[in-house]
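Milestone 3.1: sequence recovery, worked example.
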């Protein structure tokens, strides 16, 4: 009888959507799901800045208005196609709802309805389900993903954005971005305080040395301010040392190397410095970052089809190598990476794959094979990414800042859960049981085909001689 009452309260009765403004600078889609008991869930999806080739499709209007990024088509897909089929379903049964959405689209990359449409609906259902049950979102996520514990993430405090900082390069957008990873602490609150102190000291030094101001917890560098990112690494290390956190706060970089790859030139242009760089050049830079600086996480260091290169770096560097564009939160691409030992971590972005269920399946696959997971708020999850991190027990989070809502939400969750939650600290950065990952010859063959196709299209120059046989 109690289950029947729950289902009555959680039955979906209305699904609406609208186009919204977002902090990304282009429109997003917001979907609202209402249940019969009055519970409401809101989900937002927006396109990213660094968008991988293998991500699910974001459906836009491609008209003059909104610079071609209008969401009216995606909104219609939610209101006219998806919404009516969800009415009467149980919002607390995420997988069953998502299966209906996936069947309606019928394509692997959401080409029909759009991952922005499906992702916003799926996220709204997740939140409506939690509201219908009257439980925190992190608790509902733990139940939906069959996670057995609550884990507070090691914070990673953003310090640097502004990819065109060297001048003369049209590639890259806001990458690379840097963060301070606060791992050498016993609690989340102690760790985030260290991040706050260290980042403030870094911003002070940034102004003192280069007259660059920080805004919203991030230093934006103008072209010509520095000649090489090494100057920033030195500054961040100095800031950490000044505050007494050496050995407890490390560095993280989201390279997004693919955004710097020039197909015509066959090399990376404007990455880390103005000079053009080959794949081997980048690998030598990464060696320096690990041996001479306290880098503990490097994300998307090479071309997104370069599984061999990522596998090489994973073996050689001994730190966390994370795939964002490489995996696109896609279980199939992750399987290919696991087969080759490419990377040992994955960024979680729901609308890269299109539904909560697919994203959580990718998380389960990653964790089962010793890969770490870094939830990211940039595609519309916003403050709720704190609940994702805790409910999925990832132990890490992609980037946050001490001026935003994610930090305050995590502090609130830490207080609510008390001793029920674990903070892993340095253990969260462990590489995991990569040597025990299953070898799948079929996945390896699939990887080779993807790489060979990209090579023929001029998107990847292939392994250099220095990596052959390694």
């Amino acid at each position: 009888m109690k289950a029947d009452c729950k289902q009555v309260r959680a039955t979906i009765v209305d699904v609406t959507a609208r186009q919204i403004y977002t902090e990304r600078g282009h429109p997003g889609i917001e979907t609202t799901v209402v249940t019969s008991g009055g519970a409401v869930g809101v989900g937002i999806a927006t396109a990213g800045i660094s968008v991988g080739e293998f991500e699910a499709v974001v459906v836009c209007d491609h008209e003059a208005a909104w610079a071609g990024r209008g969401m009216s088509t995606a909104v219609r897909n939610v209101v006219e196609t998806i919404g009516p089929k969800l009415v009467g379903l149980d919002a607390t049964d995420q997988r069953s709802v998502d299966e209906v959405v996936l069947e309606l689209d019928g394509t692997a990359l959401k080409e029909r309805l759009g991952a922005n449409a499906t992702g916003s609906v799926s996220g709204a259902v997740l939140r409506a389900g939690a509201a219908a049950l009257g439980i925190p979102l992190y608790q509902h996520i733990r139940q939906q993903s069959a996670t057995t514990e609550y884990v507070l993430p090691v914070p990673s405090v953003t310090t640097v954005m502004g990819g065109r900082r060297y001048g003369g390069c049209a590639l890259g957008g806001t990458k690379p971005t840097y963060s301070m990873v606060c791992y050498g602490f016993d609690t989340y609150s102690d760790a985030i305080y260290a991040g706050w102190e260290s980042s403030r000291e870094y911003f002070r030094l940034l102004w003192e040395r280069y007259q660059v101001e920080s805004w919203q917890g991030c230093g934006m560098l103008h072209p010509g301010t520095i000649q090489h990112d090494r100057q920033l690494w030195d500054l961040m290390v100095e800031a950490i040392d000044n505050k007494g956190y050496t050995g407890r706060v490390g560095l993280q970089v989201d390279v997004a190397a693919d955004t710097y790859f020039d197909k015509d030139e066959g090399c990376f242009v404007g990455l880390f410095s103005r000079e053009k760089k080959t794949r081997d050049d980048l690998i030598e830079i990464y060696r320096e970052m690990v041996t001479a600086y306290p880098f503990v996480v490097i994300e998307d260091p090479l071309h997104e089809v370069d599984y061999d290169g990522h596998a090489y770096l994973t073996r050689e560097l001994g730190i966390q190598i994370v795939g964002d564009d490489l995996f696109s939160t896609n279980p199939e691409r992750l399987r290919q990476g696991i087969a080759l030992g490419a990377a040992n971590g994955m960024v979680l972005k729901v609308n890269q794959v299109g539904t909560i269920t697919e994203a959580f399946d990718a998380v389960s696959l990653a964790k089962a094979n010793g890969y770490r997971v870094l939830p990211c708020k940039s595609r519309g999850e916003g403050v709720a990414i704190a609940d994702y991190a805790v409910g999925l027990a990832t132990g890490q989070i992609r980037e946050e800042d001490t001026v935003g809502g994610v930090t305050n939400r995590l502090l609130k969750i830490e207080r609510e859960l008390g001793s029920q939650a674990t903070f892993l600290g340095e253990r969260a950065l462990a590489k995991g049981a990569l040597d025990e990952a299953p070898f799948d010859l079929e996945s390896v063959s699939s990887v080779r085909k993807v790489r060979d196709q990209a090579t023929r299209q001029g998107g990847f120059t292939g392994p250099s001689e220095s990596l052959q046989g390694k």
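The mean pLDDT is 87. The first helix runs from residue 2 to 10.
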